[in-house]
Amino acid sequence: GPPTGGGRRDVGAGSLRRDCTNSNGEDPVTAEHPYESQKEISFVIPCYNSAEYMDHCIDSILRATGNIEIIIVNDGSTKDNTAEKADEWAARHPDTIKVIHQENKGHGGAVMAGLRAASGVYFKVVDSDDWLDPVALNLTMSKLRHFIGSGSPVDLVVANYVYEHTVSGTQKVIKYRGMLPQNRVFTWNEVGFSGPGQNILMHAAIYRTQVLRDCGLELPEHTFYVDNIFVYQPLPSVQTLFYLPVNLYRYFIGRDDQSVNETVQISRLDQQMRVTRIMVEAHKLPEGAGNRRLAGYMEQYLGLIVTASSMFSLLEGTEKGLRMRREMWEHIDSVDPVLKARLGLRLPLVLGANLPGPVGRKVSVALYRTAQKLYRFN
Hints:
Elements: E1 39-47, H1 54-62, E2 68-75, H2 82-92, E3 97-102, H3 106-117, E4 120-125, E5 131-132, H4 134-150, E6 156-165, E7 170-174, E8 185-186, E9 205-208, H5 209-214, H6 227-232, E10 241-253, H7 262-267, H8 269-282, H9 292-316, H10 319-335, H11 337-346, H12 348-353, H13 357-375
Parallel strand pairs: 1-2, 1-4, 2-3, 6-10
Antiparallel strand pairs: 4-9, 5-10, 6-7, 6-9, 8-10
């Protein structure tokens, strides 16, 4: 099997009792600590026929120092030896890695299985074709350890992520400077306006596990794009945040069968619409957010999802796509007519993706193609 990486410390379950005092003045976690019996973080890796690339992902996470847990969820793989590979990893690292074998339930079903099994104070999803940067990972682990040691860990830690365009050999780093205060704990009152591409996606988010459980998070099975629900629904339950400006998550872009491949997205328009419906129904905005700044961010995020659904309806190219777009707007109107008006009038992206008439539809597609070249998001 692949090497586990140099400099890693194997730490058994329940061994938070250790001296983790360092030059930053972090306090040692004591036996009386409320989190003493928990792992520091649970990394969940949904795997579906992932044998070709899962080793790289797992190996990158094993380079973390600290009391981590890796939960590999074999989501009904049938075409390769994903199941056997997962079991081999668990056999080599029994204190760190556990495996869940389940019938195929899709990405959301795999994440939920991981959440139910997680014993970490924090929770991070890493898709099996992605990986974590080892230096950034250990800076992040040090910070999480500090929060846990304080006895009141923050609810959401945000780090940068990197689009790794492996075919072209290019990278694009998504940062949150200008939007989020850096290197200190803050609340929603201090969050600025998000620029293009600055939504806090699953790749950027490390949630406190209990926040996800307390907010009643449920992801639909057999549905792609549920990562948007994962990072959107829990937001009103988040009271404290921390932005660590390190390039932690490496997001692989370039395989033809990826869920973000445009052709694949168009073929899964029904699933994109399902996610949109769930997000529209998740919270009544703005009052459901509980904070004016958060409500503004959530409305902008929802607008981005509505924009994507509108665009893929147009790119689908038939009356079926246009019908699905009409039904989406009818649904938004039935849930909250005021929200429908605000989305349509206040957000330029939503307007640009919903220009009226045949000419308007052509202009919308042209605008999308321009944005695609600029931001290389699929």
